[in-house]
Amino acid sequence: MVLTLDRMLNDVKTELPHYKEATEECVTGREQAKDLQRAVISLKDKLEAAYCQSQKEVLQAKLDAGLDQLRPEKEALLGKCKLFTAFKERLPEMKNRINAGIGVWEAFKAALNIQFRGVN
Q: Is the pLDDT score of 117 beyond 70?
């Protein structure tokens, strides 16, 4: 029995360095796996950021294109607004001219009435 125990102890001494080496490899492998996991997460975050940025750039380009298409309409509307504003500013003057024209017409009509009354 002592021989068996001695052999078992000897086997353990022989296998112990291999066990330590395997344990160290496991620890190293676990650390490498964690490093790899961190790198994958970092890459994922970078890819998501790049994707969001590219999506943002695409949307910005579409928005700019849409605004470029609307720009002529905007300019046309601004031109119409300027014309309307100028017309609106001239309304009092036009009203005065119309009223003056009506006054002239009324005077002319009155003169014609007087003239035709005188003929009768």
A: no
